[in-house]
Amino acid sequence: SDDSGVSDADVRQSKLANNDSDNDLVFEVEDVGEGDQFMACKPWIGALVAPNNKPKIDNSIPDAELELEYVYGYRCQDSRQNCYYTQANEVVYMSAALGIVLKPEENTQKFFGGGLAKENKAHTDDISALAISNDRSTVITGQKGKQPLVCIWDATSCDLKKSLKQRKNTRAVSAAGFSFNDKFAATVGQDNDHSLFVWDVKKGKQVYTDKTGPDKVMDLAWSMKEDEYKICTVGVKHIVFWYFDANCGFQKKKKGIFGSAGKMTNFTSVQFSAEGTAFTGGTNGSIFKWADRNLKKSAKIHAKGVHTIRIVEDHLYSGGADNKIFQLSFNFEKLKTFETEACPRSLDVDDGKILCGHRNGDIAEYSLEDESSKVVLMRGHSDGEVWGLCQDAKTGKIVTCGDDNKVMIWDFKNRKCVNIAIFSEKAGKKPKTGGASTLSTLPPNQQCRSVTINNGGNRHLAVSNNEGMVQIRASVDDPNKVVHTMTDAKEWNEAMQYSPNGQFLAVGSHDNNIYIYEVNNKYKLMGKCNKHGSFITGLDWSRDSSYIHSNCGAYELLFFQIPGCKQDPSGGSSTRDEEWSNWSLRIGWPVQGIYPDGTDGSHVNGTDRSKSGEILATADDWGNVNLFRYPNMEGAEYKAYCGHSEHVVRALFGQDDKRLFSVGGYDQTVMQWKVKSG
After folding, report:
1. 584 conformational bin, left if phi > 0, alpha if psi -120 to 50, beta if neither
2. Whole-angstrom Cα distance, residue 109 to residue 119?
3. For the chain, give me the number of helices (H) and strands (E)?
4. CB 593 within 8 Å of CB 607
5. pTM for this prediction
6. What DSSP state is assigned to residue 445?
7. How many other C-beta atoms lie within 10 A of the C-beta of residue 176?
8. Among the residues of 298-436, which ranges form H helices?
9. How far apart are CA 234 and CA 212, in angstroms?
10. Mean pLDDT of all residues in 619-632
């Protein structure tokens, strides 16, 4: 928890530390045998009926291209000290598999990574650690993975300088840092021994490695004293000093000695002054001052755990779970205090401003001249997974929802979050068996899983949580006003769509049912479509609002007549010439080509047809957003775009097809892409 300074994610990572399974290589194709079995057994095949006027199929690579324009998100749940000012007065941080450089005055971004997957030379999984050189010109980032990639890149151009790899089975990079002269860098793995690696930055080669011990390392720092090559690693009941010569030849390592000046605790952060004095932050709220490896002084600074410390020039800055930032002298005199809305996870200082990354997904600046001044640079989701994605046709605003209890409204034209609604103020019961899998720290009633807007009617905003409750909010302009609540579904709802005429809301649940509500009759339950053999994964309405077609976890494609909610066993034929208002299904006649050879059928999480009806976007388990021609058949070629680090759960074309939006499950990131003609 934030009170202790050691997050729940840290605990989970420690529990997983002995699991060497290679399930984190998210871009690799699933087992071919399983895929062949899937393709040989197609329970939906009888429901696939071609239109009477069958269109010409073009399975070639589409002309359309994607260009990453903006990313909403900041990795805060399991990483600290990962947000800095650059030499060019920009802000560098990470989200998903991207290094992001934000220019605050223009609110524009540059990216290290992202783009066509086949051309990617950057990260392929979650970036788990980031540090900047002392001259603020170079960034080092490390990712998760069986053999974690470490990249050194230019903070201005985002060009790759060196690509390195930690030893196999080190699982992730948990911390990184540069030596005083930026000649060397160090990283720490999350293997059982939490191995330390030292790199020659210019040569791009490893010069030293050793075990730090069985306890997790939370941070590392080099001495900033000129000509002193010393590293301090800190973590769970861990503080060790490492001594090297001028060529980074190892000399010795020594544990910190506490004496009578303080007691051992879990350490989350470490920094060195220009004189070579180390300062460490503890989960007990104290900051410790060291003379070489001997503790000289400790003081209780924060009421709760210290999460981050940063030394800039002659001041020490600390952030704690008490939602405070302190500017301190090196003797721990409190000079200035800044109140924050959430726990600070990262601090930097430059040009009279404090840059702070917060646990709630915010990045903000505080003025050193005005302790009440705050400017928010970035907002994002911050817990569990993000699944919900839709667009308001009237305003163009994008809506997302996630396991962090937040419904977020985005103005994509101005590239900012304009409103945040909370799903439930009151925490409910602990998770029950059978709900949606999640790493959220919140209970199911505060985890949002789907969202949709009544664009054909009253603009109501429907949001559903992990217990199956559906709340109807007034609109994207008034998202905190709840006008109706429905609790018919017994499991979480993955798919929700309003009918094009605005009169009905269809809710597809993991209890295998589709619930149909009458919008203009106070959302009275009109009926259930209950013929699916498994949980509902997607549904669409016909343009005249008289039919629904739907998919489920058993790979069925079924058709239901509305308002009667009766299944049409001949729906494939009955609707062969039907115009569907949109296309979000993973199985259907016009999307038979979205499963590459050797896949098992489960890796596609969502689809969306462009408003022009010419392109289909898919979101997959490999972290990619893919573009196909529409319609397509088996063997269709496509373009895959990377940037997300986890399963991408939704992709959505904007109202004019000039933008595409995507959300990545556990990377908690919303991406905005330009759609360009080839």
Report:
1. alpha
2. 20
3. 3, 53
4. no
5. 0.93
6. G
7. 26
8. none
9. 10
10. 97
Q: Which of 507, 468, 514, 474 has the alpha carbon at shortest distance from 491?
A: 468
Q: In what order do the strands lie in the sheet with 493-498?
A: 493-498, 504-509, 514-518, 524-529
Identify residue 517 by its one-letter amino acid code. Y
User: How far, in Å, CA of 213 to CA of 189, rounded?
Assistant: 11
For residues 530 and 550, give the distance between their C-alpha atoms in angstroms, rounded to a whole number.
11
User: Among 26-35, 288-297, 568-577, 653-662, where is mean pLDDT lowest?
Assistant: 26-35
Phi-psi region of 247 (alpha: psi -120 to 50; beta: other; left: phi over 0): alpha
Q: Which of 250, 281, 137 is nearest to 186 (CA)?
A: 250
CA–CA distance, 420 with 22 (Å, rounded to integer): 37
- Which amino acid does the sequence have at 314? D
Pairwise CA distance, residues 529 & 550, whole Å: 10
Confidence of residue 597 (pLDDT cuts 50, 70, 90): confident
Cα–Cα separations (whole angstroms), residue 31 to 37, 226, 286, 597, 622: 10, 53, 50, 11, 13
- Burial class (CB within 10 angstroms; exposed 0-12, middle 13-18, buried 19+) of 251: exposed
Give the CA diameter of the chain. 86
**Total length of the chain:** 678
Whether the pLDDT of residue 10 is over 70: the answer is no
Q: How would you classify the pairing of strands 306-312 and 315-320?
A: antiparallel
Q: Give the Å distances, CA to CA, from 602 to 73, 96, 133, 449, 665.
A: 26, 22, 42, 18, 15
How many Cα atoms are found within 13 Å in the side-chain-facing hemisphere of 478?
10
Task: Kindly state the helix (H) or strand (E) to which residue 406 belongs, with its residue range.
Answer: strand 406-411
- Per DSSP, the three-state class of 670 is strand
Return d(Cα 629, Cα 615) in angstroms, integer.
5
State residue 304 phi and psi, 5-degree precision: -130, -175
Contacts of 533 (CB under 8 A, 6+ apart): 512, 552, 554, 556
What pLDDT does 47 receive? Answer: 87
| Helix, strand, or coil (residue 34) | helix
What are 376's strand-pairing partners?
A: 364
Collapsing DSSP to helix, strand or coil, 572 comes out as helix
Taking the C-alpha atoms of residue 602 and residue 605, their distance in angstroms, rounded to an integer, is 7
> Amino acid letter at 305?
G
| 558 and 46 Cβ atoms separated by less than 8 Å | no
419 within 8 A of 409, measured Cβ to Cβ: yes
In whole angstroms, how far apart are CA 366 and each of 67, 173, 345, 661? 32, 29, 15, 31
Q: Is the peptide bond before 51 cis (omega within 30 degrees of 0)?
A: no
d(CA 343, CA 152): 29
Q: How far apart are CA 235 and CA 220, in angstroms?
A: 9
Query: Are 374 and 388 contacting, i.e. CB atoms less than 8 angstroms apart?
Result: no
Residue 408 confidence (pLDDT): 98
Report H helices in 41-94: none
pLDDT at 434: 56
Q: What pLDDT is recorded for position 432?
A: 60
The amino acid at residue 192 is: N
Task: Supply φ then ψ for residue 108, to 5 degrees.
Answer: -120, 160
- Cα 41 to Cα 35, 221, 551, 556, 569: the distances in Å are 10, 55, 16, 12, 20
Task: Supply 643's token pair.
Answer: 């940037």
DSSP bridge pairs for 291: 294
Please give the structure tokens belonging to residue 274: 């220009």
